[in-house]
Design goal:
Layout: H1 13-24, E1 42-47, H2 72-89, E2 93-96, H3 107-116, E3 121-125, E4 143-145, E5 152-154, E6 160-162, H4 166-187, E7 192-194, H5 213-217, E8 222-226, H6 239-256
GO cellular component, one term: outer membrane-bounded periplasmic space
GO molecular function: N-acetylmuramoyl-L-alanine amidase activity
Keywords: Hydrolase, Signal
């Protein structure tokens, strides 16, 4: 996501975002100049939700559909763009799972993006907004989910597809602890880490099970972030709260996967 103009002094986050947007392009995921790219960790950003799409994953038989959810979809896409700009400025290669706000993307397609580029880390960005059931940005729902062996989702026939990659699960758990600490420090809110959803997702009309689908289908460490989605006095996030969420995620990524020093 070099960035420090002088020791002990940082340029304002908004300025860095504007510079990076102009010079790098936010959504291309293109690598840097040849020769430097191999030293740059690849980070995949997964802004939540999509125009409604129905699909079944041919390999697993899982229903991998997705749906619209506003204002969350718009807010987290904006947050993802801020995170992408800062990370690129700081030396990372960044790929987004969708390149347009209303682009249709199945959950399997999202996971495939991270697998294809061999991401060092992937992270989903979600929040809980709305007039009914919405949560204040700092009031609650600040959760970091990690992959764990034994978590699963169910096919329509009832077969369980189980997560079994111990190495990925171990790294994901380590990263989740870092995300929880860094997000707490930036957001000034209690942030918890969880090994699974904690209930049967089938109760919401989704494929049954207790693991987020993108994490199950991923072969790389994947952190699934939730946050409160309503800023004070409104439905959805203000620009200031979007920036705070983005800063928290940037700091988390950089603590998990530092850019190697080049000599």
């Amino acid at each position: 996501m070099s960035r420090r103009p002088s020791p002990g002094r940082r340029r304002p986050f908004a300025v860095l975002v504007l510079v990076a947007l102009v010079t790098a392009g936010v959504l291309t995921g293109a690598p840097a100049a040849q020769g430097a790219a191999t030293h740059r960790p690849v980070i995949v950003l997964d802004p939540g939700h999509s125009r409604t799409v129905y699909a079944v994953d041919e390999r697993t038989g899982l229903v991998v559909s997705d749906y619209e959810n506003e204002p969350e979809m718009r807010d987290v896409f904006a947050v993802a763009k801020l995170v992408a700009a800062r990370l690129r400025h700081d030396g990372y290669r960044v790929v987004l799972t969708k390149t347009r706000l209303h682009q249709r993307r199945t959950l399997a397609q999202r996971a495939a993006v991270a697998n294809r580029v061999h991401a060092a880390l992937a992270l989903s960005i979600h929040d809980q907004a709305g007039r009914s059931g919405g949560v204040g940005f700092r009031a609650g729902n600040n959760i970091v989910y990690y992959q764990s062996v034994g978590a699963y989702r169910s096919t329509p026939s009832g077969r369980h597809v189980v997560f079994r990659d111990k190495a990925v699960a171990k790294r994901s758990k380590t990263y989740a602890r870092i995300f929880a600490r860094q997000r707490h420090a930036v957001q000034r809110a209690t942030v918890t880490s969880r090994r699974n959803v904690g209930y049967d997702l089938g109760s919401r009309g989704l494929a049954g099970g207790n693991m987020w689908m993108v994490q199950l289908l991923s072969r790389v460490p994947w952190i699934y972030n939730e946050a409160g989605g309503n800023s004070r006095g409104r439905v959805g996030l203000t620009a200031a709260d979007r920036r705070t969420y983005a800063q928290a995620l940037v700091r988390s990524v950089e603590a998990c996967v530092p850019v190697p020093h080049r000599t």
